[in-house]
Amino acid sequence: MDKIVTLSDGESTAELQKYLSSLKNDQLIAVITNGALKGKKVGTMIKGIFKGSPPCSTEGSNRRLLVYQHCIPLCESGDLQTEVAADIIGLLMLETHTLSGPSLAQLASLFVEAIKVGKMGSGKSLELFPTVLTALSACEALSYGKGELSGEEYKKQLINSLCSSRLFYLLLFFFLCFPHFRDVPLSPEELRFVVEKVLRMFTKLDLQEIPPLVYQLLLLSAKGCKKQVLDGIISYFKEQDVCQEEEQKHGDLDLEVQSIPQDQLRHVEGTAILHIVFAIRLDHELGREFLKSFKISYGDLCPFSVALLLSVARIQRYEEQVFDLLKVAIIKSFKDEQLQQGSKFLQDLLPGHCSVAQMILDTVRNSVFGWDHVTQGLVQLGFFLMDTFGPKNGPFGKTTEGSATIARTPTQQACKLGGQVLLQGFKVHEPIRGEILEQVLNRLVTKTASPVNHYLDLFSDIVVSAPMILLESSSKVTETFDHLSYLPLATVQGLLKAVQPLLKVSMSLKDALILVLRKAMFSSQLDGRKSAVTGFLLLLKNFKVLGSLASSQCSQAIQVDVHSRYNSAANEAFCLEILSSLRRCLGQQADVRLMLYEGFYDVLRRNSQLASSIMQTLSSQMKRYYEPEQDLLPPVKLEPCITALGDQVYLQEPLAHLVSCTVHCLLWLQNMRRSSNPNMGDSDDDEEEEEEEGYQSELQTILESMTRRMIKSELEDFELDKSAEFSMGSSVGVKNNIYAVLVMGVYEVLMEYNFITANYSKSCFEDLMELFNRYHKLSEILKEKSGKGRVPSNKTPRSLLSLGFISTLLSVLFRDSTQSRQEALSVLRSSGEFVRYAVNVAVQKIQQLEETGHTDGPDGHNTDRTFRFLCDMTSVLMWRYTNIPSVVEDAGKKEKRSSLSHLCLEGLLRIFTACQQRYPDKMAQLLSTMGNTCVLLKLQFSFDRQQRALFTQLSGGDEEFNSKEAQLLVSILSVLSRQLKPSSQQFDQMITWTVKICKETSFEDSAFSKGLLTLLFNLHVLYKSPVSLLLELCQDIHSQLGDIDQDVDVEKQSHFATVNTKTSTTAAVSLLVLSQVDRVLDEVDWLIARKKSQTVADKSGEATQTAGQQDPIEKAVTLQLGTLLTALNELVQTALLPGTCTITLLRELTRTYSILTTLVKYYIQVCSSQHGALPARFEKLVKLSGSHLTPQCYSFITYAQVQPPTLQFYKLVPTKLLRETKAIPNLIFSIEQYEKYLITLSKKSKVNLMQYMKLSTSRDFRINTATLDAALQEHDETQEVTEETQEPKQKKRKQ
């Protein structure tokens, strides 16, 4: 060894070569081994050997190869020091390029065999392998078997051989060699092969081995195959999640140990996400490829990829893109789900649905396992969804109140999803709780111009789910209280209602709120003072005083399971203190007083111990406006109830509401005292009872006196006779209107009071009717006077009758058969006006419930009681309508107003609609109250009732046909039919009945026909596709209206009798059919877009479609369009009325051709990727469109341009709008685009599709031959040249 070193240091290499030649291979190996083990000058020695072994000579080349062949196993043996082995490998790497081709081939084979047999123990020498492969790929020709291969091909064979080895040794190679493998120049095919091999190994590995392999793969992706790497990793974890979910589902049945521990899988997924995000930070091309793969279709999303997207969103440059991508995916998922739920055709074609919302919620649950890098993205996503899709202001800044619990539209569902993400995140992640709470409260304070109902719901859910956690952040809630007086009233009400559970356990929070409310009571802003009243009333309702009578409504208060340190005695002092503050409100504006009067009843019901204080307050307030002198009329003072500011007159005291509040509180107290059994013998209780009886009897006396004197009072006593002015343009008119509303309200309140206290006494009911007669007289005057003014009158004032009273009144009027009550009830029943009034008020109350979710008066906000009243009224109204025929009610028809039966039907329709919107879960319970316990049987029974009623209407002939009632019946059937399951027998019966009605009834009422056909379509779309129905209707319309060519006789056919001469000449039926055409086109367009996205996603994969077998979706699309084209072919030949129908048909034709163009583009895409034949059905579709529809379209265009619009059309559609319409040019452009892409497809598919197309008519210059003929004949009747002027006819290509 020393000699080799010495000779290599010398200048002459000849002696070194000579010495090396004298050494045998064994001797040389021994020298190298000894030097390496000693670790002294081994590098210098190997350099000397290389120096004395010129690569150009055979001997030198062999000696170099010998050194490589010996040093590689030596380094792997583990006998050498790490530094020595590293030096040797470094030297070998430097000299690799000098090796000859055969030597490199042998060396590479040595590596492959060593890996295969497992001799690469430490893997130290594997660093040399990529260098050998790089040098090998540069060789031109190498002998391989009996032939020759290029170095590149030889390298490919080696990699193939290596990737085909056994799993254990293959893993050894990838783990040890992968860090250096990326330095090997690989072709795209080789790289793809390697990546595929590694990805296939994932399923055979333990979970713990996945993250390092993912890391190495991401490093390798710098060379290419980025999409393949990412898709492979994501699909692996997607499969693991599915397996995990399946195991959890069947966990009760299978008691074996889980193959995939959940916590272990989630931690591995979290590590993999960190690796991918780190790689994307370094390689932005990888990030772009990642986002691009999800922009095509959200179907590739899974909980793992959602978590990955949210982690990537932390990188600033991708944040906006990620949230936009998720927003589009979420809203599209909800829209797709809605589309599928509303179409049986789509459900059968695509049974499954990919729910992005469920994936996101799964991601929230999975993030519990240490996914801190995901939680911030979840918070951002939640608020992003709520901000983007939350409720918006309606026209003129008004907020349309909707149901808080039901999310129907995709936008509402997306907003609700945002709230669910934040709520679940708040529950499971402690670090983000403060941020979520702060952002919610900030939005409540700052978003004063837009609705914040969704944030209030979220805050309420947070409080209920974790009240004690919120106490830790009570300072943030206290800060929000400081802004109460500046917030909208609805926000204040929602916020204070939500925070009630916290006030019961936190004295500091309660004290802070009271301080803020006291300040707000003296606010200069009206809303501030109303907020103070709201807050104080809520506090009174929710702080129970010792000894308060139990009532079923007390359960409405939100209860928190904590140990409260406040006792009831302290609560009483607290409540009395608040009441004293509220008394100041009785001197403020009418709106503030009104809130107080509406809230006192609920306070009394929850805290009966406050009765004395409340009743004294109401009594003293009533006495201000009550005339104590019994001989004076009227018994109320109206002048103090108004105030004037300049020329403007305002309401100061809502007197009727004051009386109403007093009456209801008094009645409730009397009822509760009667039903309770107070302890006798207690002196304190006796004194209290005497006091209560005192003010109760005093109030009773006042109310009885008011009743007696209001009956005696004439309208002149209130200065409200027929000669009074009611114009809203003058101060006197405004004053009289206010007086009239107050007096009518007092009449109503006294009617309710006298009915409840009458105990079915005939004399009391006669007094009640006297009150009603005066009410009715004033009401008629008000309607008559206000209708004469230029300014349209306001709506009828809201009735002050309570919903509970109306429910009771309807029951006794229509269904009470108790013998002892008949004489008294006959007084009420004999007045048709009173019965109509009762039903009208019921309809008004139900409408208010439908619009706002509550009604005026006691129990108006109590959902349970309100629903019970609805059930009672449903039963009564249904009985009244079905048992008393409307023929009896001739008076209603003569006076040109709605009959009582019509009002009952309207009430039923509003009840069903309101229940479906406000109490969707209780709809079956509502229907079951009509006499049957089985919901489905009851549904069918109610349908039978409506059907019998409708048959009665239809069988009476046109003279007795009541169109409005028939329309209401159809509307009720439409609402009730939504409760039937499409798979049920009742649904089939309903469809059969509806089809029968449409086919057999022929009434010339377009509104009724439209309602009936709408019901038919709504049912049919849940049964099967409505295209066949559309075809028959289009044929009927064509038959009724005639052809655009007057010389053509249309075959008389009638599938549906409801489409007759009268109904088809109005736009209603035609527009309904065209709207259904648009709906079918929506479904077809959606299916084509879905297929296109699948084709793009599967482009890299193999074609799965078998030759000669058409894809089910493609087949369905072709059949739908074929039937639709046939239906449209009927319509374009129909002499439709000029105007809306014509323009709508032109637009639908334009859309049809656009969708046909989309379908052609899809087949162009298919032909480009898969060289298959076009389906025969598609060729037939093209033939149908080209030879039948297109020529008729051009004929219809000519017809539409020549036909003069009717006078009615000019009234509906201004001439300017007609002139600016682009329907015709758009249709022509769509047809030409369709033909253009058909030419492209013909070239791609080698099928001549244009043989079915006829040359389009030129639109730039046309000669109307008929007009020209007439002009020429008139010019010169004697000339025979007229024959030649017919020549342009040959250019007319309408057929």
UniProtKB/TrEMBL annotation:
GO MF terms listed in the record are: DNA polymerase binding
Which GO biological process categories is it annotated with?
DNA repair
Q: The FANCI helical domain covers which part of the protein?
A: 285-366, 550-783
Classify the source by domain of life: Eukaryota
| Positions of the FANCI solenoid 1 cap domain | 1-52
Q: Where is the FANCI solenoid domain?
A: 62-280, 374-537, 800-1016, 1030-1269
Write down the InterPro entries for this protein, in alphabetical order.
Answer: FANCI, FANCI_HD1, FANCI_HD2, FANCI_S1, FANCI_S1-cap, FANCI_S2, FANCI_S3, FANCI_S4
Q: Where is this region: Disordered?
A: 1273-1295
Q: Which PANTHER family match?
A: BC025462 PROTEIN (PTHR21818), FANCONI ANEMIA GROUP I PROTEIN (PTHR21818:SF0)
Annotated protein name in UniProt: FA complementation group I
Source species taxonomy: Eukaryota, Metazoa, Chordata, Craniata, Vertebrata
